[in-house]
Amino acid sequence: MLSKPNFGVIAFLLLCSAQCAIAWAAALGPVPLPAPDVAASGTAPAPLTPLGPGDSVALHVFGQPDMDGVLGVADNGSVSVPLAGPVQVAGLSADNAARKIEKSLKDGGYFIDPHVTLTVTQSLSQRVSVLGEVRTPGRYPVDSKTTILDLLAQAGGETEIGSDTVYVLRPDASGTVQRYAVNLKGLASADISTPTQLLRSGDSVYVPRAEQFFILGEVQRPSMYKLEPKLTVIQAIALAGGVTAKGSARRVEIRRVGKNGQQTVIKPQSSDLVQPGDVIRVKESIF
Q1: 3-class DSSP state for residue 234?
Q2: Which residues contact 56 (CB under 8 A, 6 or more apart)?
Q3: pLDDT digits (tens, 9 = 90+) for 78-135
Q4: Which stretches of 38-105 are assigned E, i.e. beta strand?
Q5: Whole-number pLDDT of residue 43
Q6: How many whole angstroms separate alpha carbon 260 and alpha carbon 248?
Q7: Residue 18 clears pLDDT 90, i.e. is over it
Q8: Are 266 and 213 in contact (CB under 8 A)?
Q9: Following DSSP, what letter does each residue of 152-163 receive, concatenated?
Q10: Is-above-0.70 flag for pTM?
Q11: Consecutive H or E run containing 24
Q12: Could you give the CA distance from residue 266 to residue 280 in angstroms, rounded to a whole number?
């Protein structure tokens, strides 16, 4: 015969499990959360984009093909609907604007139970600025599904010295601009999720210049290079095309500025990590 469950013991175990979960979360420390929609997951519903002056919408009234057409949102935020006349839609989503047009047509006595759909055909009121290390900085239109990657693509992509960490600048309810860092390394790393952050009108995306180092002397391509995480001296030399026939991989020095602002000359090991601002010089072979 099966014994009756001891509900007191079960409750005690559940309480212990909850307390353990709380303690574990506290040990992890606080996780900074971005503003709404900045780090929305791919499964989260997209926010509704409000209509504004300059937008265009396709009007369709079920069973009334003569009503179909493309309407532009005027500077005063209204669209001119056949029969109903001007209807204010600024600040409304396309669905809510359609409901308002239905009410106008019904209140005017033109239809008993109209069914209206609006589809955004052009969105010019919702724009985001892109600044910094991109090919074509400027202001670009966005919709409810535009991600940071989409926006950077519109701006021609990052330059060669663009950072892997970009910043979304967004004013909060009080007007204070908040800054949220977004790491783009998900494009190259399988263990980091690709950024799907959604943007909204009024945002600014800033792409800073990445940290750099210089490599000079007897290498194939002496120049300034973008500093990648955990880049070693030997990897930096390979990035510059390797040592020339006149050079020696054993005669390498680094000029580095210390915390006190003084320059020091270092004889590095090939496995040493390159630091921001380093000037690596590969000297000629003495043989």
Answers
A1: helix
A2: 70, 71, 72, 73, 120, 121, 122
A3: 999 999 999 999 999 999 999 999 999 999 999 999 999 999 898 888 889 999 999 9
A4: 56-61, 69-72, 78-81, 85-88
A5: 42
A6: 31
A7: no
A8: no
A9: HHHTT-B-TTB-
A10: no
A11: helix 7-28
A12: 9
